Amino acid sequence: MLLEISIGINPIIFQYKSLIISWHGFFTMVGVLVSVLLVARWAKKENISSEIVYSVAIWGVLGGIIGARLVHVIDRWDYYSQNFGQIFTLWEGGIAIYGGILGGLLVGSVYAVLCKYPVRKLMDLTAPAVPISMAIGRIGDIINGEHFSKPTEMIWGFVYTHSSVQSLYNKFNPEGYSSFVPSHPAVAYELIYDLFIAAIAWKLKDIIRPQGMTLILFIALYSFGRFFISFVRYDKEWLLGLNQAQLIAIILLVIIVPFLVFKVKFITKAKRIS
Protein backbone atom coordinates (compact mmCIF):
# COMPACT_ATOMS: atom_id res chain seq x y z
CA MET A 1 0.00 0.00 0.00
CA LEU A 2 1.69 3.15 -1.24
CA LEU A 3 -0.23 5.64 0.92
CA GLU A 4 -0.79 3.77 4.15
CA ILE A 5 -1.12 6.42 6.86
CA SER A 6 -0.52 5.33 10.44
CA ILE A 7 -2.27 7.41 13.10
CA GLY A 8 -1.14 6.84 16.67
CA ILE A 9 -2.33 10.06 18.33
CA ASN A 10 -4.20 9.81 21.62
CA PRO A 11 -7.86 10.73 20.86
CA ILE A 12 -8.06 12.53 24.21
CA ILE A 13 -6.42 15.95 24.53
CA PHE A 14 -7.40 16.54 28.14
CA GLN A 15 -9.22 14.59 30.82
CA TYR A 16 -10.14 15.49 34.37
CA LYS A 17 -12.37 12.91 36.06
CA SER A 18 -15.47 12.67 33.81
CA LEU A 19 -14.61 15.80 31.82
CA ILE A 20 -13.06 14.79 28.51
CA ILE A 21 -11.88 16.96 25.65
CA SER A 22 -11.21 14.99 22.50
CA TRP A 23 -9.72 16.03 19.19
CA HIS A 24 -13.17 15.56 17.68
CA GLY A 25 -14.72 17.99 20.16
CA PHE A 26 -11.89 20.49 19.79
CA PHE A 27 -12.01 20.64 15.99
CA THR A 28 -15.82 20.71 16.03
CA MET A 29 -15.64 23.80 18.24
CA VAL A 30 -13.03 25.39 15.97
CA GLY A 31 -15.15 24.61 12.91
CA VAL A 32 -18.25 26.23 14.40
CA LEU A 33 -16.26 29.31 15.40
CA VAL A 34 -14.74 29.65 11.94
CA SER A 35 -18.12 29.36 10.21
CA VAL A 36 -19.69 32.01 12.47
CA LEU A 37 -16.80 34.42 11.88
CA LEU A 38 -16.96 33.84 8.12
CA VAL A 39 -20.69 34.54 7.98
CA ALA A 40 -20.24 37.67 10.11
CA ARG A 41 -17.53 38.92 7.73
CA TRP A 42 -19.55 38.19 4.60
CA ALA A 43 -22.70 39.68 6.14
CA LYS A 44 -21.06 43.11 6.49
CA LYS A 45 -20.78 43.29 2.71
CA GLU A 46 -24.55 42.75 2.56
CA ASN A 47 -25.23 45.48 5.13
CA ILE A 48 -26.14 42.95 7.80
CA SER A 49 -24.58 43.69 11.18
CA SER A 50 -22.34 41.15 12.85
CA GLU A 51 -24.53 41.43 15.98
CA ILE A 52 -27.40 39.89 14.01
CA VAL A 53 -25.16 37.05 12.86
CA TYR A 54 -23.89 36.35 16.35
CA SER A 55 -27.35 36.35 17.91
CA VAL A 56 -28.71 33.96 15.28
CA ALA A 57 -25.57 31.82 15.60
CA ILE A 58 -26.10 31.35 19.34
CA TRP A 59 -29.51 29.83 18.78
CA GLY A 60 -28.38 27.94 15.68
CA VAL A 61 -25.48 26.35 17.55
CA LEU A 62 -27.76 25.47 20.48
CA GLY A 63 -30.25 23.85 18.10
CA GLY A 64 -27.41 22.08 16.34
CA ILE A 65 -26.05 20.62 19.58
CA ILE A 66 -29.48 19.38 20.68
CA GLY A 67 -30.27 17.99 17.24
CA ALA A 68 -26.89 16.29 16.84
CA ARG A 69 -27.21 14.58 20.20
CA LEU A 70 -30.85 13.63 19.66
CA VAL A 71 -30.24 11.94 16.31
CA HIS A 72 -27.23 10.08 17.76
CA VAL A 73 -29.25 8.87 20.75
CA ILE A 74 -32.04 7.65 18.46
CA ASP A 75 -29.47 5.80 16.35
CA ARG A 76 -27.99 4.12 19.45
CA TRP A 77 -31.17 3.73 21.47
CA ASP A 78 -30.32 0.07 22.11
CA TYR A 79 -27.46 1.37 24.28
CA TYR A 80 -28.99 4.52 25.76
CA SER A 81 -32.22 2.79 26.75
CA GLN A 82 -30.10 0.71 29.12
CA ASN A 83 -27.87 3.65 30.14
CA PHE A 84 -30.32 6.53 30.32
CA GLY A 85 -28.02 8.82 32.29
CA GLN A 86 -25.45 8.70 29.49
CA ILE A 87 -27.82 10.59 27.19
CA PHE A 88 -26.77 13.85 28.82
CA THR A 89 -23.00 13.23 28.95
CA LEU A 90 -22.38 15.10 25.71
CA TRP A 91 -18.75 15.81 26.64
CA GLU A 92 -17.99 12.10 26.33
CA GLY A 93 -18.78 12.20 22.61
CA GLY A 94 -21.62 11.01 20.46
CA ILE A 95 -23.19 13.38 17.93
CA ALA A 96 -24.75 12.97 14.49
CA ILE A 97 -23.92 15.53 11.82
CA TYR A 98 -27.39 15.38 10.27
CA GLY A 99 -28.97 16.36 13.57
CA GLY A 100 -26.52 19.25 13.85
CA ILE A 101 -27.34 20.54 10.36
CA LEU A 102 -31.12 20.21 10.61
CA GLY A 103 -31.39 21.28 14.24
CA GLY A 104 -29.21 24.33 13.68
CA LEU A 105 -31.11 25.31 10.54
CA LEU A 106 -34.50 24.93 12.20
CA VAL A 107 -33.78 26.77 15.46
CA GLY A 108 -31.64 29.48 13.84
CA SER A 109 -34.25 30.14 11.14
CA VAL A 110 -37.14 30.30 13.60
CA TYR A 111 -35.23 32.78 15.75
CA ALA A 112 -34.33 34.92 12.72
CA VAL A 113 -37.94 34.98 11.55
CA LEU A 114 -39.22 35.95 14.99
CA CYS A 115 -36.68 38.78 15.13
CA LYS A 116 -37.54 39.81 11.56
CA TYR A 117 -33.96 39.36 10.39
CA PRO A 118 -33.21 38.72 6.67
CA VAL A 119 -33.35 34.97 7.19
CA ARG A 120 -33.07 33.95 3.53
CA LYS A 121 -30.00 36.10 2.95
CA LEU A 122 -28.46 34.68 6.09
CA MET A 123 -29.14 31.18 4.77
CA ASP A 124 -27.28 31.98 1.54
CA LEU A 125 -24.31 33.31 3.50
CA THR A 126 -24.33 30.27 5.77
CA ALA A 127 -24.37 27.77 2.91
CA PRO A 128 -20.62 27.85 2.09
CA ALA A 129 -19.59 28.34 5.73
CA VAL A 130 -21.27 25.22 7.13
CA PRO A 131 -19.43 22.67 4.94
CA ILE A 132 -16.17 24.46 5.78
CA SER A 133 -16.89 23.98 9.48
CA MET A 134 -17.82 20.35 8.84
CA ALA A 135 -14.53 19.77 7.04
CA ILE A 136 -12.62 21.23 9.99
CA GLY A 137 -14.54 18.97 12.36
CA ARG A 138 -13.62 15.94 10.28
CA ILE A 139 -9.95 16.58 11.07
CA GLY A 140 -10.77 15.58 14.63
CA ASP A 141 -12.62 12.49 13.40
CA ILE A 142 -9.55 11.45 11.42
CA ILE A 143 -7.37 11.72 14.52
CA ASN A 144 -9.83 9.97 16.82
CA GLY A 145 -10.52 7.03 14.53
CA GLU A 146 -13.91 6.46 16.13
CA HIS A 147 -15.82 6.14 12.86
CA PHE A 148 -15.05 2.62 11.76
CA SER A 149 -14.55 2.06 8.06
CA LYS A 150 -14.30 -1.09 6.02
CA PRO A 151 -10.94 -2.60 5.04
CA THR A 152 -9.58 -1.35 1.76
CA GLU A 153 -7.50 -2.83 -1.02
CA MET A 154 -6.90 0.57 -2.57
CA ILE A 155 -3.42 2.08 -2.62
CA TRP A 156 -4.35 4.27 0.36
CA GLY A 157 -5.74 3.61 3.80
CA PHE A 158 -5.65 4.53 7.48
CA VAL A 159 -4.12 2.38 10.20
CA TYR A 160 -4.78 3.31 13.83
CA THR A 161 -2.11 2.26 16.28
CA HIS A 162 -3.02 3.99 19.54
CA SER A 163 -4.09 1.54 22.24
CA SER A 164 -7.38 3.29 23.04
CA VAL A 165 -8.46 3.24 19.40
CA GLN A 166 -7.45 -0.42 19.14
CA SER A 167 -9.65 -1.22 22.15
CA LEU A 168 -12.57 0.52 20.44
CA TYR A 169 -12.01 -1.59 17.35
CA ASN A 170 -11.90 -4.76 19.44
CA LYS A 171 -15.10 -3.80 21.26
CA PHE A 172 -17.31 -2.35 18.57
CA ASN A 173 -16.01 -3.49 15.20
CA PRO A 174 -18.75 -5.72 13.72
CA GLU A 175 -16.38 -7.91 11.72
CA GLY A 176 -13.65 -8.14 14.32
CA TYR A 177 -10.75 -7.05 12.15
CA SER A 178 -7.71 -5.44 13.74
CA SER A 179 -7.10 -1.69 13.70
CA PHE A 180 -3.81 -2.56 12.00
CA VAL A 181 -5.71 -3.57 8.85
CA PRO A 182 -5.77 -0.56 6.47
CA SER A 183 -9.29 0.85 6.23
CA HIS A 184 -11.00 3.34 3.97
CA PRO A 185 -10.36 6.93 5.12
CA ALA A 186 -14.11 7.56 4.95
CA VAL A 187 -14.04 10.73 7.02
CA ALA A 188 -11.23 12.05 4.82
CA TYR A 189 -13.42 11.37 1.78
CA GLU A 190 -16.12 13.43 3.45
CA LEU A 191 -13.70 16.21 4.36
CA ILE A 192 -12.72 16.59 0.71
CA TYR A 193 -16.34 16.41 -0.38
CA ASP A 194 -17.35 19.06 2.16
CA LEU A 195 -14.79 21.47 0.72
CA PHE A 196 -16.12 20.69 -2.77
CA ILE A 197 -19.64 21.59 -1.62
CA ALA A 198 -18.36 24.78 -0.01
CA ALA A 199 -16.81 25.85 -3.32
CA ILE A 200 -20.06 25.20 -5.18
CA ALA A 201 -22.14 27.04 -2.58
CA TRP A 202 -19.79 30.02 -2.70
CA LYS A 203 -19.96 30.12 -6.49
CA LEU A 204 -23.76 29.91 -6.64
CA LYS A 205 -24.89 31.89 -3.59
CA ASP A 206 -25.32 35.12 -5.59
CA ILE A 207 -26.79 33.72 -8.77
CA ILE A 208 -29.60 31.37 -7.71
CA ARG A 209 -32.98 32.54 -6.55
CA PRO A 210 -35.11 32.70 -4.54
CA GLN A 211 -32.80 33.63 -1.70
CA GLY A 212 -32.13 30.81 0.75
CA MET A 213 -31.93 28.16 -1.93
CA THR A 214 -28.15 27.87 -1.65
CA LEU A 215 -28.44 26.35 1.82
CA ILE A 216 -31.11 23.95 0.60
CA LEU A 217 -28.81 22.99 -2.29
CA PHE A 218 -26.00 22.37 0.19
CA ILE A 219 -28.18 19.93 2.14
CA ALA A 220 -29.06 18.09 -1.06
CA LEU A 221 -25.44 17.86 -2.21
CA TYR A 222 -24.28 16.67 1.21
CA SER A 223 -27.05 14.05 1.34
CA PHE A 224 -26.07 12.73 -2.07
CA GLY A 225 -22.41 12.35 -1.13
CA ARG A 226 -23.04 11.04 2.40
CA PHE A 227 -25.30 8.30 1.04
CA PHE A 228 -22.48 6.81 -1.03
CA ILE A 229 -19.63 7.47 1.41
CA SER A 230 -21.58 5.59 4.08
CA PHE A 231 -21.17 2.36 2.12
CA VAL A 232 -17.52 2.18 3.20
CA ARG A 233 -18.35 2.94 6.84
CA TYR A 234 -19.47 0.60 9.59
CA ASP A 235 -22.65 2.06 11.06
CA LYS A 236 -25.69 0.46 12.61
CA GLU A 237 -28.03 -0.91 9.94
CA TRP A 238 -31.61 0.25 10.15
CA LEU A 239 -33.44 -0.94 7.04
CA LEU A 240 -32.51 -2.90 3.92
CA GLY A 241 -28.85 -2.79 4.87
CA LEU A 242 -28.87 1.01 5.06
CA ASN A 243 -27.82 3.02 8.10
CA GLN A 244 -29.57 5.98 9.70
CA ALA A 245 -27.62 8.61 7.75
CA GLN A 246 -28.44 6.94 4.44
CA LEU A 247 -32.15 6.79 5.24
CA ILE A 248 -32.15 10.45 6.25
CA ALA A 249 -30.29 11.26 3.02
CA ILE A 250 -32.94 9.48 0.94
CA ILE A 251 -35.80 11.28 2.69
CA LEU A 252 -34.15 14.67 2.25
CA LEU A 253 -33.32 14.08 -1.40
CA VAL A 254 -36.88 12.95 -2.18
CA ILE A 255 -38.18 16.19 -0.65
CA ILE A 256 -35.50 18.65 -1.77
CA VAL A 257 -34.65 17.65 -5.35
CA PRO A 258 -38.14 18.25 -6.82
CA PHE A 259 -38.33 21.47 -4.81
CA LEU A 260 -35.04 22.68 -6.29
CA VAL A 261 -36.00 21.65 -9.81
CA PHE A 262 -39.22 23.64 -9.78
CA LYS A 263 -38.16 26.60 -7.63
CA VAL A 264 -34.53 27.50 -8.41
CA LYS A 265 -33.80 30.11 -11.04
CA PHE A 266 -30.45 31.47 -12.14
CA ILE A 267 -30.00 35.21 -12.49
CA THR A 268 -27.53 37.23 -14.55
CA LYS A 269 -24.91 39.62 -13.21
CA ALA A 270 -26.91 42.56 -14.52
CA LYS A 271 -29.96 41.53 -12.52
CA ARG A 272 -27.83 41.08 -9.38
CA ILE A 273 -26.52 44.64 -9.70
CA SER A 274 -29.96 46.08 -10.30
Tell me briefly what this model is.
The chain is mostly helical.
Describe this structure in words.
The chain has 274 residues and is mainly alpha-helical. The protein has one domain. The chain is built from ten helices and eight strands. The strands form four sheets. The chain has a two-stranded parallel sheet with strand order 1-4. The protein has a two-stranded antiparallel sheet with strand order 2-3. α1 runs antiparallel to α5 and α2 packs antiparallel against α4. The protein is globular, with a radius of gyration of 20 Å. The mean pLDDT is 87.
Question: How is the topology of this model organized?
Answer:
Layout lengths: L2 E5 L4 E5 L2 E4 H22 L5 H26 L1 H4 L16 H18 L4 H26 L11 E5 L2 H10 L13 H19 L3 E2 L3 H17 L7 E3 L2 E2 H20 L1 E2 L2 H5 L1
Helix pairs in contact: 1-2, 1-5, 2-4, 4-5, 5-7, 5-8, 7-8, 8-9
Q: What can be said about the biggest beta sheet?
A: 2 strands, parallel
Number of helices: 10
Radius of gyration: 20 Å
Low-confidence stretches: none
* Strand element count: 8
Global shape: globular
State the helical fraction.
55-70%
What attributes does this structure have?
274 residues, mainly alpha, two-stranded parallel ribbon, two-stranded antiparallel sheet, globular
